[in-house]
Amino acid sequence: MTREQLIGTIGKNGKRIQLRGTDLAAFDFSGLDLTGADLSFSNLGKANFRGAILRQANLSFANLSGADFTDADLYEANFNFSSLENVDLNGANVEGASFNFSGRSKYRPVDTTRSEPITLTNILQKPGWGTLIGAFLGALLVYGCNAIIYFSNLILKAEDPLMVGLYQFLIVQNMVDGATCFLLTWALSGWLSRQFKHIWQRHVFVSLAVTVSFFIINTALYWTIGQPYLRELADRPGGIEKTAAWYVYVLGDLLIANIFLYGLQQGRQLTRKLSEQEFQLLNMEKLKTRAELDALQAKINPHFLYNALNSIASLVHENPDKAEEMTLLLSKLFRYSTSRNGELFASLADELEMVRTYLQVEQVRFGNRLTFSVEISNPALNELQLPQFLLQPIVENAIKHGIAKRADLGRIDVRIYEKAEELHLCVHDNGPGFADDMGGGYGLRSIQDKLKLLYGDDARVEFQNWPLKQVLISILMSKIRAVNLVSAPNA
Questions:
Q1: 79 with 92: CB under 8 angstroms?
Q2: What is the CA 20 to chain-centroid distance, rounded?
Q3: How far apart are CA 225 and CA 170, in angstroms?
Q4: Among positive and negative, which fits the CA dihedral 141, 146, 149, 154?
Q5: Per-residue pLDDT tens over the stretch 435-486
Q6: I need a labelling partner for 220 at 20 to 30 A (CA). Which of 145, 197, 227, 471 fits?
Q7: For residue 16, what is the DSSP state?
Q8: Which of these, 336, 289, 211, 339, lies nearest to 456 by C-alpha position?
């Protein structure tokens, strides 16, 4: 898809853009209005979103590594489980955006230690003019409460039914005006944030809306409630005392409405700042998880190295060709172990190749006492990215506690298949069965901890003695794909 084709799609029938699961790496989205667009599960590595409007857009589970969101409008956008490695969010509006379990970025929140945000709480704490504003608000609230008490008391004590009706009308009128001011401002607050970038524009619009509502509501209340009382009192000499002009009462409604709007906007700013803090905490949590996974990466057992070297030494004179073969296999195994370059994941094909190499080394050591097979039901599964050293410790455990305890032929079968939307990794051996309290050594415990960190409750390890003795790892396929997408390297 070209940029021109995308622009043509945006304007068609006013529909939201649907680009779910597409490859748009390095695509130029700059300045485009992508409000509500669905870009989930897409490859958007190094895409240019500078100045783009992505309000309420869905970018969950997307690869956004290296993407540029400078000055973009990301109001209430969904970045959950997205890869944000090396993303530039400087100047972007992230108000209400969700970054749960997303990666790291170059985004830096405003340094509040240098410039304190202007909030009602901070204003009231300031001496001088802050104290004056607090005193004015306090006087306004107390005056309003006392007015309600005063008119309520007049209604209870007044003997003239016309005056009772007038007081009731005034109370209803003011209460309806006050409730409308808040409800109208509350209803418009979110829409105003999306439509107007400048705060003064939002206040002007609210003021106009409240003024219109003032005339509509008070006209309706006059004809439905107040007309009979006001007309009769107007005909009575001295019945109604002269009051302030209508626009003075409008100013009161406008003051209250703008105070409400200010408070609601400050609440949204607080939500935004909390989102920024959560974003940083999630980055820290991801770094912590990365460190834990690094610590859990399996290391080749030193005893295996000792046994392999001893086997090579014994074969040097008896069977030099076999010794050379085992040396090359051992070299290949350690090359895989030491050339990770900080990567936590490897393709399933690489993992299985590593397991085959490990078993070939052990086969030289055990000779005819060990046979093995490594099978995968669907070649497409080879491309899945899984944690490194996921199978090798299980195979090593099968050698140590299964094959080594048999005097006759031992067999290990590694089978990989998909069933019920889960990936199953099975390691079967024909050694003695697992004990009832089988917990496994460090290698098996590290696998369980690694799966828990990466996949949560969507992965499990089972030790089975029936119908076959095997260790079974089951991982939800959708979870594997989601983790693969988030952990994918920069495009």
A1: no
A2: 17
A3: 10
A4: negative
A5: 876 655 556 777 888 888 788 889 999 999 888 899 999 999 999 888 777 6
A6: 145
A7: P
A8: 289
